[in-house]
Amino acid sequence: MFPIIAELLQRFNDRLDTRAIIIEENALEEGLDALTSYLPEGPWLVAGDDNTWKAAGQDLAARLNEAGLSWSRYTVEVPSDGSDPICEDGRIAAFQQALVQTNSTAAIAVGSGTVNDIVKLASHNEGIPMASVGTAPSMNGYTSGIAAVLSDGVKTTVPCTAPLVVIADIDVMAEAPYRMICSGLGDLMSKPVSNADWQLSAWLNGTFHSDEAMEIIEAGAAMLDGVAPALPDRDRQAVAGLTASLMLSGLAMSVAGSSSPASGGEHLISHFIDMTAIAFDEPHDFHGCQVGVGTITSGLLYEKLQALDPASIDIDARVDALLPWNEYEELLRERFGPLFESVVKHAKPAYPSPEDLRRRLTLLCDEWDYLKTNVRRTLRTGQSLEDELRAANCPVRFSELGVEPDRARRAIVHSKDIRNRYTILHLAWELGLLDEWAEEALETLA
Ligand SMILES: [Zn+2]
What we know:
With 446 residues, the chain is an alpha/beta fold. The chain has 2 domains: 3-176, Rossmann fold, CATH 3.40.50.1970; 258-444, Dehydroquinate synthase-like, alpha domain (Up-down Bundle), CATH 1.20.1090. It is built from 21 helices and 8 strands. The chain has helices at residues 3-11, 27-38, 50-66, 89-101, 113-126, 170-174, 178-189, 191-205, 211-222, 236-256, 265-280, 287-307, 315-321, 325-336, 340-350, 354-366, 368-373, 382-391, 405-414, 424-430, 434-444; strands spanning 20-24, 44-48, 71-75, 106-111, 130-134, 146-151, 154-159, 165-169. A 6-stranded parallel beta sheet has the order 1-8-5-4-2-3, sandwiched between helices. It has a two-stranded antiparallel ribbon with strand order 6-7. Helix 5 links the parallel strand 4 (106-111) and strand 5 (130-134). The longest helix is centred in the middle third of the chain and has 21 residues, at 236-256. The protein is globular, with a radius of gyration of 22 Å.
């Protein structure tokens, strides 16, 4: 259905774990062949929660039985308060134990983000292969070699083996809860700003950047043409485009060996919302819905950066204003409370020395045009990002995510400390402008 996907799997065969991606109507038909071709002979452990089992698990179970394959079912419990299950250490350990107890030779995840991440990481830890049967086009992790985990209260991504086979039935994907479809679009809409962050970091810090991954990301972006306005009708072609684009986004991360091509400051804003939701029992939304609002925010911050006169940057003053690490650490302790111990591990290696800061800001000012040419190339305005999300009825305001104004402000100004990856949030902070720009962005987003 998508020749480019088969082409990429072939071309990057040596770097990718994934051998087959099947996106079509009635995908389990061809999918079963792929499972038996690429997974070792059973028993297989098939995991899903009650909802994903209804969406695709039952159909898969019937087909496995019909083919006489050996398998057993593992139920990922949904919390009794009705909240979404989370991929955290305890659930990963429980699935690993089940794999051992059932002598399974392979695992199959039936579900989207959380179920996939649990199965992916647990299987990886046990050294056994896995496959994914998707139930919602809600995130780009199906084909990625990383899993998002809540570990010690902090959202982190952990490298792991990607699924050998990914199966996405278009009818199943199209009938997913609509908010999950919004989440998939929101996750992909981050591309213009996450790529700008990636480029920004490569420029100012010399970090790794991959043209091959960018090429895949661009191909994925092209698949989103005209998709947003057709999603509310659950148009099959639009859902197929969204699903394929998500798969390409995951492949780009796998080819780059990092989530950088698809995750910048907008993801930190989303991760901050998740972390505080769990630690302080506050509301949150699907990953990509939060990423969508974070993306509009990042887009607005980049507009502020581009409007800045580099002559106004007083490098000496910025270096003088840099707090010594131990004083900044105390600030973090106040800000993050019970999350401090986990956050500080990520914040410390990212904290600049006065020399780092001077070098980076000098480079920024000296080569300011690079911002206007290379970094800007992928960018879009906050408004155009918002318009596309609106066309699909996706949330575009923090209030629509249940995030009240002060928490939204903290998500923008404090989330840079939860991961060691340079983004627009870090640069704005180093320029001493993050608080001001955050207030202005929030006014625009009120
Ligand atoms: Zn994401």
